[in-house]
Amino acid sequence: MNEYIKLRNIKGNAAIELREGASRLLLCPDMGGRVFVEVAGIVPHRIDLQAAAHPGDDFNNYGGNNLWPAPEGGMYGFNYKGNEWYVQPVVNKQSFKTVAWDSNGAMLRKRAALLNRAGTVMETLISREIKLSGCPVMLENYELEACLSYTTVDSFKVINEVQADAGLLAAWTLEQFDATGDTISFCIVDNPYQTINFDYYEHPGKRISYYEKGFTYRTDGRSRGQIGIKVEARAKQIGFYDFDRRLLCLRCNGSDGNGLYFNIADNDQPAGPLSAADNYSIFNSDTDMGAFELETIGAAKVDGSLIQGSELISDTVLAVFKRVEDIECFIRKNLGRAV
User: Fold this and answer.
1) Which of 91, 162, 234, 246 is deepest in the core (most CB within 10 A)?
2) Is this structure's pTM higher than 0.90?
3) Domain residues for 121?
4) Using one digit for the tens of pLDDT, what is the confidence trace for 231-250?
């Protein structure tokens, strides 16, 4: 019995399961609307079964695909009470309500009051829509054991009046995967040397390798680090591959790109909240969690001087190939030669 089946058994009727061929997706409204998948018997997501069975008052890091309010740190951070890092109860514990559901997807909503580090309260209506979306054209010439693709449409609508000098807000998805010695994350982008924002943590050094049409980041869950990918770079997508499991993941930020991008990082942001503008991020954990994250980031919608909210559209593809050689071919075709 794999981790996905164990989680499904724990959640019972509290979760929504969607199926597509030899793959399935579990949506958990009472776990922050997190998404977990199984593809041809492989469970790529990190799943904390103990937290799922016995959630607590502190941070319940269940794993899977999760929605967060950005920024995390800085003067407007949602994850700080003074200098203490914490997760607000409305994010950590408050359930979504299922307002629509069929065999192809579901719509979740909740109303939540978010408090930022500056003391500003944002009354928000949070929506998360999940839709199965079919395997993409770029994989149609490869032989696959199975493929599961889904789209999330995540939004925060600010109901009360919030001035832009009192806070910022953006939708942010963190998709968390189990790391192995063979998990390599990548970004497909035309100007890789001008793409990366290294201001999150210490420079990851030799973990980054550059190619003609992108770069890779060794995300083995053994060295904490994070990089951003600048909006201006116009990256096509990010992803990861694992030859041992014949597994490929692709993530694409499908948002319209309009709005205000800002620094979402969990650091002091000494140059201020507008010191960075990323629409993707990749996080690698220490060995204590043994995981990594592929993240998509939305923009704040601002009307005059008021914060309206944020919408983020993200596409995730998870495919198990019949042959490792085909994954190698895909990577060569899309990243080009090492430089």
Assistant:
1) 162
2) yes
3) 3-335
4) 999 999 999 999 999 999 99
